[in-house]
Amino acid sequence: MLAEIITIGDEILIGQIIDTNSAYISKELNKIGVKVYQITSVQDDRAHILQAFEDAKKHADLIIVTGGLGPTKDDITKQTFCDFFEDTLVEDQNVVDNVKQLFKKYQLNKPLPANFLQAMVPSKATILTNLYGTAPGMWMEKDNTVFISLPGVPYEMQHLLQDEVLPRVIKRFKRPFIYHKTLLTYGLGESAIAERITDWENELPQNIKLAYLPSLGKVRLRLSSSNIDENVLKESIDSRMEVLSGMLSEIAIGFEDETSIVGRIAHILNQKNETLSLAESCSGGAIAEHITAEAGASSFFMGSIVPYKTELKTKILGVPASLIKKYSVVSIEVAESMAANCCKLFNTDFAIATTGIAGPTKGDGEDEVGTVCIAIASPTGIVSEKFGFGNDRYRVIEKTITKALEMLLKEISKN
Amino acid sequence: MLAEIITIGDEILIGQIIDTNSAYISKELNKIGVKVYQITSVQDDRAHILQAFEDAKKHADLIIVTGGLGPTKDDITKQTFCDFFEDTLVEDQNVVDNVKQLFKKYQLNKPLPANFLQAMVPSKATILTNLYGTAPGMWMEKDNTVFISLPGVPYEMQHLLQDEVLPRVIKRFKRPFIYHKTLLTYGLGESAIAERITDWENELPQNIKLAYLPSLGKVRLRLSSSNIDENVLKESIDSRMEVLSGMLSEIAIGFEDETSIVGRIAHILNQKNETLSLAESCSGGAIAEHITAEAGASSFFMGSIVPYKTELKTKILGVPASLIKKYSVVSIEVAESMAANCCKLFNTDFAIATTGIAGPTKGDGEDEVGTVCIAIASPTGIVSEKFGFGNDRYRVIEKTITKALEMLLKEISKN
User: Fold this and answer.
1) What is the pTM of this model?
2) Fold for domain A261-413?
3) Which residue from A62, A375, A411, B151 puts its CA 20 to 30 A from B75's CA?
4) Searching chain B, which residue's CA lies closest to the CA of residue A202?
5) What is the C-alpha separation between A185 and A183, in angstroms, rounded?
């Protein structure tokens, strides 16, 4: 049982938007045991779409198509479906009613004639009602291959997939059980990990696949396999992951999907009823953004200050100007003072402080681009470290976030 | 002159990561006149990759492949290149030296044998030196089609593309000039816009394509075409866009892609020698993160405070507790007080303040999830507005960022 995803739209091929729909659909299909063989992004062009349909049909039992369903002239998906299925467009009364209802509920104006074009659908299609937008989903079959068309607007697509598509796919196809488990590690490179786990890796059975997913400062290790028997498969992968986690205990943060590093931090701080504040200079609000992106942050996160200009480190955060003069603004001493004063200002148990040169140009001090000092203040004292994170602005900020959260996790995990 | 992009990696097909590389590459190729015909994501599987190479070669003159270049066993791109080009791997001394240098500069440990596997490259490949990571880029040719392999780590890929790939593509291929211009509109639906501009749209010449790109609360209208003569093309599209912009003047915000909204804000503030600070409650540092992500922020951005807890709005930012009690923490009045006091605290000309309920649970006040108040303080006074941004945390934060920057741009653009 294989699936393919086809996304239609010139906006993807000129890089105007990032295709997030494919990742969402792939993840959801995987959960129900459907393997995605390929993702293809094609132009708003009839011949190109037809070619993609033919190619996909060679491998896949299920083809999910997104995009190109708007009411305006540049959208041609429906007409192309008609060509492919030798069908014609007919008006569907349920879609007409849905358009009327959506306008009544959410719009100030009345629907225009163009809005009712959404009700013109291929006569052979099973219509999937879209409660969040006017473009319906469609389910069609040819030579035992199922084609599904969904709108490209992400939240409309997501609701249709969950409410209409997945339940029908589960009924229609026999599927194996697919299982992935991912261990998140910080602080050691891909090659160094590979060397340490060579024996373990060589003993993996053929049908269990190991993948290394490195990104700045962290490496994710994923085991994947599929099997008819869910219990056998889970047991087989879980037990191997336990061994791996033990072998890498000092760098393993936990299993992904269960919780993120922010999730772990939130869990520990909430359990201990302790609080956190931030003084972010070179990371410029990015750590706060990470922490508050997850729901429930307000139970432990008191707030953050970004004293981007050097003099504000003194004025608002109370870092002595003499200290900055003596050690430079990017120094262990200034980072520690920022962290300690941040705890006081926000009245928190823990604080992270960052100061550094993200680049591309040098800052107020003498330090090289990429120099970053991070300090963590805790009820038992302050730890700090100086790093060289290289000469790419994005990378410096990302590595600062990763390292700061890793250092914080270590401190709050102490008893 | 057509290009195709092939991204390799099971992590894309199981939805574990979103493929952002393709959008970046597409956008950069477009700028130099290279049209991307198709984007294909394939598995870490030799036969599948070879099939994708064969298929892409049918249409494209240039094929850019990303991913699958790590030093560990799951990465098979290089071996597959050898199969496709009937080639073998040989050691490249420049890559060996680069690995040594990178480790010397950025790593505490010495390189492992596995790291030097990166120096094993197809003998026929032109090597593109990667100054930001150990995996080199590769340029190979077959039957007049150019294949380029780049690492999947985004910033490594981006540097290689900019420094090594694009200059060579410009030299190697004759390219037309491709031009897009996008008008950003807020407040009217796709169909309503289409109805208003029917006559204008019908008069567009065959070779200029109009696309509607709707997303939450806004519709982008894009004109695209390509031509050998840059001046003729620009003149033709620009003049049509001026007419369109005039027809939609009350909903048009401006042209996209000329520069980001943060870039425009930076430009104006630097020109006027004015400064900005932020007081972000519900946006939790996300606006600061957006502003500091672009280089050069320190010339106008003084800093930010995230008073996430209600009492900190009083303690650090000086918002009267009585005001919060009288109007609720999510109110126009509190947002305005936050903005005014933020200007004072950071000694800036402008300040943005946000307060709201991002959800999923209600905050300290009585307001519904999605309620957000934004205020902009300027030398001439304060403007503010209350919004309902719906019940999805991610959307609430994203909409807050967008709206706050839009409001700020309007204020700083006044004389």
Assistant:
1) 0.75
2) Maf protein (3.90.950)
3) A62
4) B73
5) 6
